[in-house]
Specification:
Blueprint (H helix, E strand, L loop, with lengths): L1 H18 L6 E9 L4 H20 L3 H26 L4 E9 L1
Antiparallel strand pairs: 1-2
Helix pairs in contact: 2-3
């Protein structure tokens, strides 16, 4: 019984001594806000694409119609996206847990 107590106290003492050399891993929570693609940008891209396709399909001069339709569609999409962004502003909050070493 005495050998078991001495052995356990020896192991406990070594674990306490080695704990000072090991850095404890602490977790930190980092809060980041991600907006992703803005509604203005998304509206501009969708409007420009739709305008270019429509302009190329309707016009006799396909390239000229695609350019004009893309510009007009992009402007319209930007205005629509800006309206949506002002009406419902959203920000995505992302929590990241990191371990310091």
């Amino acid at each position: 019984m005495k050998k078991i107590i001495v052995g356990l106290s020896f192991v406990f003492g070594l674990s306490l001594a080695s704990a000072g050399f090991n850095k404890a891993a602490a977790q930190t929570v980092k809060k980041e806000t991600k907006t992703g693609m803005s509604k203005k940008k998304k509206g501009t891209l969708i409007g420009a694409g739709a305008g270019a396709v429509t302009g190329a399909a309707v016009s006799k001069h396909h390239a000229k119609g695609a350019v004009i339709g893309g510009v007009v569609g992009g402007a319209g999409g930007y205005l629509y996206g800006r309206h949506k962004q002002k009406k419902n502003p959203t920000k995505k909050t992302v929590y990241k847990t990191t371990v310091k070493q």
